[in-house]
Fold:
Amino acid sequence: MLRTGDDYLKALRDGRRIYIGSELVTDVTTHPAFRNAAHSYARLFDFKRETEGMSFEENGERHSFYYKQARTIEDLVFRKNGHKLLADFSYGLLGRSPDHVSSFVTGMTMKPEVFDVPGHGFPDHLLAYYKHLRDNDLYVTYAVHPPAGAKNWSQDAKAHLFDSPSLQVVASDEHGITIHGMKMLATGGAFVDEIWIGNLTPIAPGREKEAVTCAIPVATPGVTLWSRKSMERMAESTFDNPLSSRFDESDVMLFCDHVKVPWQRVFTIGHVDLSRAIYLDTAGHCLGNHQSNTRFWAKLQFIVGLANKIAQSGGVRGIAAVQDTLGRLSALEATLAGMLDGQVLAHEAIGNGFVMPNRRYMYAALNWCQENYVHICTAVRELMGGAVFQMPANVTVTQDEALSDIFESFWSTEKESALDRMKLYKLAWDMLGSEFASRHLQYENFYAGPSFVVRAYSMRLAPWAAFDGIVDKLMAGYGPGTGREPSGAPLTDFSAAEAVAG
Structure:
């Protein structure tokens, strides 16, 4: 089924427990720290339900596009187009939108045998959970990294097990397991139905109790979410903070206080290697981060549009240096668009009749986004210059007739009213200069891990033997000789093209 926005809002009033400092929040649909974002998600569910190309039919039921298990290039195009439509809805600002973690789960179901452990029914558990999410149109996020204080880079892992805050299994019986501890970072957790708990960070031998993958409803007894400061709550108005007032998706720490999880919701346990392999040895990590690439594309298009509008507003678009900046930004946008098309065109077979985007191209794009976001934002901030600081503190200036007249007379330009200029620069600052903007800067730099972790994926998948073969082929075509070739002597019979082909 496809949920309505109203159905989604009703589900949010299910007894979840979120702390902002010492304040306990139980209804995110009405609390000033979350209500606007909650209603943005509700509108997103309505948009997804009503928009062509965002759902598919199977066995007489309609399902959200991100639950489509891809078998053809057409299926991959369908998924990519759906991701773009969903990302466009929030201008790429909802990083953990409903299509992100659901794509991870969908990708895992395309190779469920990776989950197979003798004596357990983990593949069946996974497939049943996928159907549960798909058939009920649920929104799931994940918490798949240990808290910073629990990270251990020592080879002697057992020496660091004492009092670990990291989530682990503390008991089990015929009904299920009991988990206790913290996980980070459940972005979007204030607005989801379910939380997937796992380990994308490698686990050292000796930490088998932490090697658990499971999923729980967010309102499960014993589950609390600890939120960072709400930027929505700090927003003055939609006019003054048009993005942070509506698209602050929240970042929360997950704390489980002896939470009971039935066996049917457990997917791995006690295997440190398998706990991470389920993402990388299936299409899970690939589909989830292909969504991230596409979501970044939507954000980049929005930022490039802002850059052009700012240049026009400032009357500097005709300056050669400004045109160079705009040309560079538009080239970057086209580059990412090409990377996304390349991922689909050069897709990979994963087995079982399924296909996924090209992983090397996906990880290259992930690295590209991480390396370029700071430079993109800096370039647009330079175009903004000091104009953003020339604007009144907030839109209340228009509520005083005398001040409003002065504002319109002296802040307007030949082509823009004073209010339109203020509106543009408030939007640009919210995107590129505010605390909300700083959160996005940090988010884009670290949501897939530190840069060395992101590049490690490319290191792991690169065809090093083929690269070495190019060099070996060239070097095999000549020997030490006797020094300089005599004048007029023919060159050795090989070419660079043959070397590359070899």
